[in-house]
Task: structure prediction
Amino acid sequence: MATIEGLDRMLAGHPFFEDMSERARGLIAGCAANRVFHRGEHLLREGDPADVFYLLRHGSVAIELHAPGRSALVLETLRDGEVIGWSWLVPPYRTQFDARAIGLVRALSINGSCLRDKCAEDSSLGYEFLSRFARLMAERLTATRLQLLDLYGHPSDYAARPAERPLEAPTSPAKPGPSGP
Amino acid sequence: MPSVPHTLPWGHAIADPMTPARYRVDSIRSELTGVFTLGLSPLDEPCGIGFAPGKFSMLYQFGVGEVPISVSGDPDRPEQLLHTIRAVGSVTNALQRLSPGGMLGVRGPFGTSWPTTPAEGADLVILAGGIGLAPLRPLIYRVLANRSRYGAVCIFYGARTPDDILYRDELEQWRGRFDMTVEVTVDRAGPDWMGRVGVVTKLLSAKGFSPPDTIACLCDP
Result:
């Protein structure tokens, strides 16, 4: 089992935390654990309490969205060096998407409720965390907007169409039509 | 008045840039829904037109009209001119209805070219989205034919879905090489897709490049 010192080294080696102060990393290491997931296993499940997030050290994870009667839609894949999960930061602390291991995944899991408590006690740590996650959220939002542009779609799908005329109530009684034969 | 040969800025002389040369359709390959590749051979100039990677031709469907289409074949095989085309309008739809043995007019090549010579010695990033891979394919052929002249070579390609990946077989071949990196991502996928999902620009941030030593060639749809 990895010691806290070992976890601290792993945190220092992860791009998300590599430039964080040693003191802050030490605090986070107390909320961290080493995890391994096999192909098909879920790191997160939509609707579950969001009490954890992950720092990916190895492997790929699909972020999926489900709708009744449809197969899962993969929104994004995340790989080594990336972070999964920010619902632990935002009330009501419920996971918004599924996260499924595409192959063998090694990750550091960070207990969100443990970290929330530490952030509440230490406002500088809280600020540092919020800054990093705000940047991450902004990057993901920008990427999602670009995906919504559907740049590779067929031009005819997005051709400008003439504006539809609003439905209007008749202002005068309809004229009688031509009589039948 | 005798006709005067025109010399284009890149040194290629053609009799008259306004007169289409006749080309025969040798092959039509369906690439994706609504996307096809025409293989053409010249009837008027037996050797074909030489082109540098990045050039485009004006393809003239007689009686319908003319469209600019990037050359997407191997620049070292000028005898067969390849154009990958998306059917989006009256001319490109008419081109899609051609059959082997049919004929069309070709003018060109026109346009600028990818910086194959200035890129020598540098790392090369080739980033394409959707059908934007077609104009970059001649560059990839040229670089692979002269692989030792370049540093690291990375191809980043983004498509709408896994079913919309252009030149899938070739991407797989290139990915199997040890002397280049090929990363493919799609905007949307089902759970069976084992590859990446996300915008193509995200692939850039995952790799460390030294901008002064890197030349990037990009083409989106």
